[in-house]
Specification:
The chain is 33% helix and 24% strand. It is an alpha/beta fold and 448 residues long. It folds into three domains: 8-99, NAD(P)-binding Rossmann-like Domain (Rossmann fold, 3-Layer(aba) Sandwich), CATH 3.40.50.720; 107-305, UDP-N-acetylmuramoyl-L-alanine:D-glutamate ligase (3-Layer(aba) Sandwich), CATH 3.40.1190; 314-447, Protein-Tyrosine Phosphatase, Chain A (Alpha-Beta Complex). The longest helix has 16 residues, at 276-291.
Length: 448
């Protein structure tokens, strides 16, 4: 294991991941400098704690001068490597890792890593619950919440971690014992040159795996299937579309797990979470859990107990016989498509937010078939209106609160109204959680 005692280390980006990395390296005896484009006071407000006095703080970007004499740079996921003086770092011989890489190298246990465009947090949480029912020491976190670097030093049986494409950009030796790739659809067009670059970044999850590792993959996703031949690990597929001889699939109202000539069945009625995407999420979690030794009874208990996560097709309430659902985490077109598939009722869709540059036209056909209307708001509303015109009746407003009031006027008894934005939240909100909370509040005000 590399030792950074008395070494010069820069941690770039002072969010939760950066702070966890800085504290870990400080405990190892490194000379740590934490760097952020926000002032120190703003960083400490967002973290809710002060920066230790042993950690130097710099406001701004890393310069070529600062790169001289640096042994390691730890990059937070929100900071693209293009913001680093890469040539100067190469000349100085500095290593550049992400927080995920650092955390993995210090983690004392096996790792199951979950990625994909959609469903990561749900699968990570559900698989973590399943594992916790079978093993005494399970860490659940990563991009979902607690950074992996924060778990360093303590012995664990398993670490179940959500990993984003941003985190996978800066891995080196990262090798999960189990890797789960849930799906691949267009996202983060503002960070990647094209879809191919984004997809290749996701595929880095399997880069270091070998024949003794496991890869849980979505057999129905054409982009995943097109790349699966390059995976060296043992592949465990899951499918909604067809019954598989090995893996996890759907047979009527039963989820079927098959491995080595054995078969187990789990009733779909166990699931409290709505939507076909959540059946897929459950299948992925079952595939991984059973292969790491979680017994069937623990799997069933976890499926039955899992309430779902906030802001993921979350039921808010009924108002005048119209059901309202909060899917604020649906920040790309693929998520919205999956969300709409889960409803047989007529839908009024509320969508919009910060424009990430993705193509909204794949929504046209499902809107034509399923939607009574769509209400568009936020920065992206103009482009969305142009690309979706004619697919269903459209209403265009500025704010989310206006969108809720407009949707209430368009919906009829028996309909569902869904906030599933297909956009990020940063035009009007700090994050998708704040947007979801604002939606809930607006719906409660309707009820009042």
């Amino acid at each position: 294991m590399d030792s950074f005692e008395k070494k010069n280390v820069f941690v770039v980006g002072a969010g939760k991941s950066g702070a966890a990395a800085a504290l870990l390296l400080l405990r190892e005896g490194a000379r740590v400098t934490l760097l952020d484009e926000r002032p120190k006071e703003a960083v400490e407000r967002s973290l809710g704690t002060g920066i230790p006095p042993q950690v130097a703080f710099l406001h701004g970007r890393m310069t070529e001068k600062a790169a001289m004499g640096v042994d390691l740079v730890v990059l937070s996921p929100g900071v693209p490597s293009s913001k680093l003086p890469r040539e100067a770092l190469a000349r100085s011989g500095a290593m550049v890792w992400g927080e995920l890489e650092l955390g993995f190298r210090r983690f004392r246990g096996s790792v199951a890593a979950v990625t994909g465009t959609n469903g990561k947090s749900t699968v990570t949480t559900l698989l973590g619950d399943m594992a916790s029912r079978a093993f005494p020491r399970v860490f659940v976190g990563g991009n979902l919440g607690t950074p992996l670097a924060a778990a360093a030093g303590e012995p664990f049986d398993w670490g179940v971690v959500e990993v984003s494409s941003f985190q996978l950009e800066s891995i080196d030796a990262f090798r999960p014992k189990v890797g789960l790739l849930l799906n691949l659809t267009e996202d983060h067009s503002d960070r990647y040159r094209d879809f191919a670059e984004y997809a290749e970044t996701k595929m880095a999850l399997f880069r270091n795996q070998g024949a003794t590792d496991l890869a849980v993959i979505n057999a129905d996703d054409p982009e995943v299937a097109a790349r699966a031949g390059r995976i060296r690990a043992e592949k465990v597929p899951f499918s909604l579309a067809r019954l598989l001889p090995e893996g996890v699939s759907l047979d009527g109202e039963e989820i079927v797990y098959r491995a080595g000539g054995r078969e187990e069945r789990y009733s779909r009625s166990l699931l409290r979470i709505r939507g076909t995407q959540n059946v897929e999420n459950a299948m992925a979690a079952i595939a991984a859990a059973r292969r790491i030794g979680v017994p069937p009874e623990a799997v069933r208990e976890a499926l039955e107990a899992f309430p779902g996560l906030p802001h993921r097709v979350e039921f808010v309430r009924q108002v005048r016989n119209v059901s309202w659902f909060n899917d604020s985490k649906g920040t790309n077109v693929g998520a919205v498509l999956k969300c709409l598939e889960g409803f047989s009722e007529p839908v009024v869709l509320i969508a919009g937010g910060k424009d990430k540059g993705i193509d909204f036209r794949p929504l046209r056909e499902p809107l034509r078939r399923r939607a009574r209307a769509a209400v568009l708001f936020g920065e992206a509303r103009g482009r969305m209106e142009r690309e979706l015109s004619g697919a269903s009746p459209l209403a265009v407003v500025e704010t989310l609160a206006e969108a809720v009031r407009k949707a209430a006027g368009l919906a009829r008894p028996g309909d569902v109204v869904i906030l599933s934005p297909a956009c990020s939240s940063f035009d009007q909100f700090r994050n998708f959680e704040e947007r979801g909370q604002a939606f809930r509040k607006a719906v409660e005000e309707l009820a009042g």
